[in-house]
Design goal:
4 helices
Length: 112
């Protein structure tokens, strides 16, 4: 059975694709749903893209409801949306960026 078609047409679809990619632990799948900047951030936060650590992050993120912010123009003339994830005391901040392929996660600031 083949992999399902990648859908990045909406923020919600991009979020689900990200969670699926992370929980797979597959770097190639993750690279398809995030920007290069986000790949660098994940490498820093996951012991150089350790599949076990990537799966842990995906499972952890799945337990939280994402809270969407408003759409804004970004510096490249496109759109971006900031979202919050996790408990208010340790919120993660995620920035989604509209690309020619659809919405991708561009930045992640882990909750402190």
């Amino acid at each position: 059975m083949g992999e399902k078609t990648l859908d990045l047409s909406s923020l919600e679809a991009a979020w689900e694709a990200m969670l699926d990619a992370l929980t797979s632990g597959d770097r190639g799948r993750i690279a398809r749903v995030v920007t290069e900047q986000m790949m660098l951030r994940l490498a820093t936060e996951t012991e150089d893209m350790n599949p076990r650590r990537l799966r842990q992050i995906g499972l952890s993120w799945r337990q939280w409801r994402i809270r969407w912010g408003s759409r804004q123009a970004n510096t490249e003339g496109g759109e971006s949306v900031t979202a919050l994830l996790g408990p208010k005391m340790k919120e993660h901040v995620l920035t989604f960026k509209k690309t020619t392929l659809g919405w991708k996660i561009d930045q992640w600031v882990p909750g402190l």
